[in-house]
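Continuing the series of single-chain predictions for the mutant panel. This is the parent chain; the variants come on the following pages.
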Amino acid sequence: MQAGISLGSNLGDRLATIRHATLLLKEKAVSIAASSDVFESEPWGLSDQPSFLNACILAETEDSPRDLLLKIQSIENELGRVPRFRWGPREIDIDILFMDGLTINEEDLTLPHPEMHRRAFVLVPLSQVAPQWVHPLLGRNVRDLAMQILKGDIARITNL
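Parent structure:
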């Protein structure tokens, strides 16, 4: 199964943390098929915090969505993520964006990610690794979604 995964960090050595998270995914039998560039972006929701580094990977996994989520949560814990308030600063934030064309709507797992189509910091790196993936609820591919959002958000994200 293919999965789109986003990684973000705005505390500590942001780039090293994202790299370490990617290595830990590989150690947990998540194969990385492609990885995006790393981008710096302004924080989402709460602007009074450091800028984020963001990237996406396209992964191959035999895990169920629930099992992949558990692996991701264990990696976030291992990398020292501290529970804070919504949209607050994070040592690491790893989200499953999609798994093939599955749609899931559970209390702690929603696929595709419910906010991905509104966030340039997700769509720009995701368009590098999965430009033709079609959002099953919107019927549009990632490249089109990224182009649409960038018309209004181009100044907020820069390539490193």
